[in-house]
Write a structure and sequence with these properties.
alpha+beta; CBS-domain; 2 domains; 4-stranded mixed β-sheet; 8 strands; binds adenosine-5'-diphosphate
Length: 208
């Protein structure tokens, strides 16, 4: 985050003199305590300074990168996931293509009659199936999908950064967010590269 020159000065003062009261910082800068209050609030919320009642402000010693890592470690899949779009394993490739267009998604999750995850369909899976001369209304998606147990999943309480790592490692665009049941995994969400991009942008917006 970009700090104002006054905020930089406050950090320097606290570094040298901390613990120091807000009153004393204000005096050193020739400002009133009230003028300084928003800056102190920002610096405390952003993690540069810490405040202890009756003791004052002190420098946390954390660098911008450390603070960013801390913020990343608070971001969970459930806060950023999207609604999953699922199709039954017996629908045709043709219907899956229609669903993909209508729902405006790049990945479909395939479930069995018990609503348990059995496969994944990407855009290229459907394109590949469309290259032959076969009638697409005749091919069920379970023939062409990537199937269990080869599906990379994530849980809603997982760290976003861990899910992002899976997307990179497996070179895929989306992960089903699942909950485990006795009969398999139930799909409760969808985590895509777009969700990660949104979270990335939000990281900067959070900084006041
Ligand atoms: P595309 O194939 O359109 O580039 P992906 O990169 O997401 O999209 O998919 C690449 C391959 O990986 C496809 O065959 C797809 O079925 C498979 N795939 C996609 N998501 C997953 C996942 N979560 N787990 C396992 N395989 C997946």
């Amino acid at each position: 985050m970009d700090l104002t020159s006054r905020q930089e000065k406050i950090i320097e003062i606290v570094k040298e003199n901390g613990p120091i009261t807000g009153e004393s910082i204000a005096e050193k800068l020739d400002l009133t305590r009230a003028t300084l209050r928003p800056d102190l609030a920002i610096l405390t919320m952003a993690g540069f300074l810490d405040a202890r009642p009756r003791v004052g402000y002190f420098f946390t010693g954390k660098t911008g990168t450390e603070l960013l890592t801390e913020a990343l470690k608070k971001m969970n899949v459930k806060e950023y996931q999207s609604i999953p779009i699922v199709v039954d394993e017996n629908v045709s490739v043709y219907d899956a293509i229609c669903t993909m267009f209508l729902e405006d998604v790049g990945t479909l999750f395939v479930v069995n009659q018990n609503s348990i995850l059995v496969g994944v369909l990407s855009r290229k899976d459907l394109l590949r199936a469309s290259m032959g001369k076969q009638d697409l209304t005749d091919i069920p998606v379970h023939i062409i999908m990537t199937r269990m147990p080869n599906i990379t999943i994530c849980m809603k309480d997982e760290l976003l950064i861990e899910a992002a790592q899976k997307l990179i490692d497996k070179q895929i665009d989306a992960l089903p967010v699942v909950i485990e049941t006795e009969i398999g995994f139930e799909v409760v969400g969808r985590l895509t590269k777009t969700n990660i991009t949104k979270a990335f942008v939000e990281l900067t917006r959070d900084q006041i």
